[in-house]
Amino acid sequence: MPHAIEVAGLTKRFGPVTAVDDLSFTVDEGRVTGFLGPNGAGKTTTLRMLLGLVNPTSGAATVHGQPFTTLNDPIHTVGAVLDGGMLHPGRSGRNHLRTLGRAAGIGNRRVEELLELVALKDAAHRRAGGYSLGMRQRLGLAAALLGDPKVLVLDEPANGLDPQGIRWLRDFLRRLAGEGRAVLVSSHVLAEVSQTADDVVVIAKGKSVAQGPLQELMARSGRDGGVRVSGPDVRRLGDILYSQGARVSGDATQITVSDRSGEQVGRVIAEHQIVISELVSIGGSLEDVYFELTGATGGPS
Q1: For 175-211, how does the pLDDT look when each residue is reduced to its tens digit (9 = 90+)?
Q2: What CA–CA distances, in Å, run from 41 to 44, 64, 188?
Q3: Is the pLDDT of residue 225 over 90?
Q4: Domain ranges in the chain?
Q5: Fewer CB in 10 Å around end: N or C, the chain?
């Protein structure tokens, strides 16, 4: 079986500028894949090539083994949201979806189902031009789902969402993947990607710098974080761990052990009958890994 999405050796040059450089990755059904990279890294150009909106200089991008432009039934195969989705500001949200549905032979019943699904039922009669950015994002998601596709391609769907909306989107994308869909989502909201994605593809300057299951990527990058231990005997615990080659820092009341797991430290505590009041794993963040891989500094771009 072909992958839901396969990008193989994809390259795009605009004159002397190489926007995407020999990029390869895959996306499978039943999984959310986060597509990460700084502004200008080539994410949107990659998605546009995947959807047949930009011709690659070389390489290929396919959906279920076929280029998008050769799909027999694209609306029932791929749903996409780019740039927040295009809409007529004078049409209501309901009429926007009905117009798209009519062009694809999809009835009004599906439109009503989707308005309910994306929580726009109460605002469906309002002109879409008056929607907030978050509401327009949700309307774009509804449009992408009109044909009940198995593959979703979403460019920055969290843009403009408030914290409640971001949480809704996280649950929504997980539900879609749970239904067996493949979800490829580019995002700058790294904290949400870390809670949503099964896999990640990280690019910088058009090239892949890391990809794979999120948890494996975190482990390979050495971002386990270690453990923090507090209590009356932590100085003795720190001395023992240090003598065993561990990296230990802290003071007489609290220490951080950066290269041992909670289980490893717990064994030393039990073996030496050390009294502690707290042992907490310190999780590394996707943001740390992202900055390390892309060379980004965390400043504005």
Answers
A1: 999 999 999 999 876 777 888 899 999 999 999 988 9
A2: 9, 25, 12
A3: no
A4: 5-220, 227-281
A5: N
Angle between the N-to-C axes of helices 93-104 and 133-144, in degrees from 0 to 180, rounded to the nearest 10: 20
Task: Give, as one character, the DSSP assignment of residue 231.
Answer: S
Choice among 130-134, 178-182, 289-293, 296-300 with the minimum mean pLDDT: 296-300
Q: What DSSP letter does each residue of 237-250 carry, written as one string?
A: HHHHHHHTT--EEE
| Distances in whole angstroms, Cα of residue 128 to Cα of each of 11, 116, 125, 200, 234 | 36, 16, 9, 33, 60
Whole-number Å distance between alpha carbons of 40 and 49 = 15
Beta bridge partners of residue 13, listed in sequence order: 18
180, exposed or middle or buried, with CB in 10 Å at 0-12, 13-18, 19+? exposed
* Cβ pair 275, 234 in contact under 8 A: no
C-alpha gyration radius of the chain:
24
What are the structure tokens assigned to 196, written together? 């949503």
| Beta carbons of 196 and 20 less than 8 angstroms apart | no
pLDDT of residue 177: 95
| 77-91, 109-123, 262-276, range with greatest mean pLDDT | 109-123
Cβ atoms of residues 123 and 135 within 8 Å: yes
Decide if 238 contacts 222 (C-beta within 8 A): no
State yes or no: pLDDT of 260 exceeds 90: no
Amino acid found at 262: G
Contact 56, 47 (CB under 8 A): no
Q: What is the CATH number of domain 5-220?
A: 3.40.50.300
Q: What is the pLDDT of residue 301?
A: 40
